[in-house]
Amino acid sequence: MIRKRLATIDDAAIYRLVVEQLVPFSRMYDSGNSVTYSEIRKRLNANKTFVIAKGYKRPYGFISIIRKSSKLFIDMLAVDPREQGKGIGHTLMKAAEDYGLSERCQTVELFVDDSNPKAIRFYSKRGYEIDSYVPELSCYRMNKRLKR
Question: Whole-structure pTM over 0.90, yes or no?
């Protein structure tokens, strides 16, 4: 089931997913530094986060988003590798896009690390297009127009 994030239940699992599934692709953490638990909580608290879990157990996937005017920004998306290939990422993206539509957003935007071709393919299959390359982040900016 998809539900809103519950910090006391979900944050440790979300942090693990970030460290295992997102940080290895990020050039920000190339030097052996890693993201801290408090950094992730701060981002989650500033965003709206949906998780996918069996009831109120630990989540095995999440998406964290923020609305900026008429644009929805996807900050983070990760799914446990044992659950990948089952449509969970697609389900989380749909939940985010539905939220964006309910908030009258016209477009969705995200950044994807250039070292993560699997993620680039995932977003491309869902209608996202590369808009530009941001060298200082080593990321592509991708976007998609939301349709009502």
Answer: yes
